[in-house]
Design brief:
Globin-like
């Protein structure tokens, strides 16, 4: 079988060490903003980190047997995010990905993944129309390894 020429973003950018760094930065920035800090009242730092690992891991295509795609829905749905707070979280994630060496296109793909699942996982209606990052791409013409 041929290997997929497009690895997921999690593997492409270094796996677990990168995810750990990005999530720590995202969580730190979130907790420095008063409006976002209020969202997480009553949650321990460990719970917030776990929530952000799941959300960021989902965005980067990280899937393991431990990955529970319902976890972000359960935790974020309780937070009653507004569209404004959602956009602020997305902005923090995007800036962190770019700061950790992600190409702009890859950071956009990660954000698009979150946007595609925003309603079902985060209970936030997103106004942007998002399609698959591969719509219009003929993968048969992509170079194989």
């Amino acid at each position: 079988m041929m290997a997929d020429p497009i690895p997921n973003l999690y593997d492409k950018y270094g796996g677990s060490p990168l995810l750990t760094q990005v999530v720590k930065e995202i969580t730190t920035v979130m907790l420095t903003k008063a409006a976002l800090r209020r969202l997480f009242e009553g949650m321990s730092t460990h719970e917030i980190l776990k929530l952000n690992v799941e959300l960021t891991g989902l965005a980067l295509g990280h899937t393991t047997s431990k990955h529970d795609p319902q976890l972000p829905k359960l935790a974020y749905a309780k937070l009653n995010l507004t569209l404004q707070t959602y956009e602020e979280i997305i902005s923090i994630i995007r800036h962190s990905l770019l700061a950790h060496g992600f190409e702009s296109r890859d950071a956009t793909i990660a954000i698009n993944v979150i946007d595609m699942h925003a309603k079902s996982l985060l209970n936030v209606p997103v106004t942007r129309h998002v399609t698959s990052p591969f719509s219009g791409v003929d993968r048969r013409r992509l170079q194989r390894k």
